Amino acid sequence: MKKIVISLGGSVLVPSLESNNISRYVSVLKRIAERCQIFIVVGGGGEARRYIRVARDLSAGEAAADELGIMVTRLNARLLLAGLGDAAYPRVAENYTEAREFAETKKIVVMGGITPAQTTDAVSAVLAESVGADLLINATSVDGIYSADPKKDASAVRYEHLTPQDLLDIITRSRMDAGANMVLDIVAGKVVERSGIPLLVLDGRDPENLYRAIVEGASVGTIVSRENSNPLLA
Question: Closest Cα to residue 162, out of 130, 138, 131, 141?
């Protein structure tokens, strides 16, 4: 059974508490879990940014603001666990050791952030390396990796395939632009490069994209791998 780690952006799972997509994701994740062992790292999304903004307004340090963000990712993870019910291990994993231990039950493992100054994308990349995943998926609010921010540059080109070094080049180039919003952070990119685990970046606003990619092997989003082939069909 393949092991798949999914970095599930808070902006697609819980844009806000009132307009969350948890029920839609629960249905898809349960179907995927019948075929694969899955680990899910949940982001903080807009709710985390709200808490962090207020903390900064109150002159809290960046580490304290990060801690608040981590708490929100774990709250989002708890909401997802509530929806998944018996399909998931009933606790949010708070470190990689716990995630591996919980996985021994063969149930879905859910976690949020771990340490300050580390994004949930980075957490998911390290988790994928730690559990020996066959695939890492980043479900985000864009449909792949582009040559530039597609929301700002109409001429931006979406890539079908990149090597890990290509990805790092794009991340590094984007980080030099003020206010750049890259689909993946540099730590996650470097872990992807060293681990050699294929990465798929797809549009998480439609949960069915996960099923199409994992179960049907459909070509959705951007694949980052050393080989110029679809790892989903391997």
Answer: 138
- Residue (of 16, 87, 33) closest to 210 by Cα position: 33
Token reading at 35: 């075929």
Any residues with CB less than 8 A from the CB of 32 and at least 6 apart, and which?
A: 4, 38, 210, 211, 214, 215
**Tell me: the pLDDT tens digits for 92-101?**
999 999 999 9
Judge residue 197's burial from the number of C-beta atoms within 10 Å of its C-beta, 0-12 exposed, 13-18 middle, 19 or more buried.
buried
The answer to pTM > 0.85 is: yes
Instruction: Compute CA distances 233 → 99, 156, 162, 201, 229, whole Å.
Output: 26, 28, 17, 16, 8
- Nearest of 227, 190, 202 to residue 4 by alpha carbon: 202
Rounded (5°) CA angle 196-202-203: 160
| Residue 169 to residue 223: CA distance in whole angstroms | 15
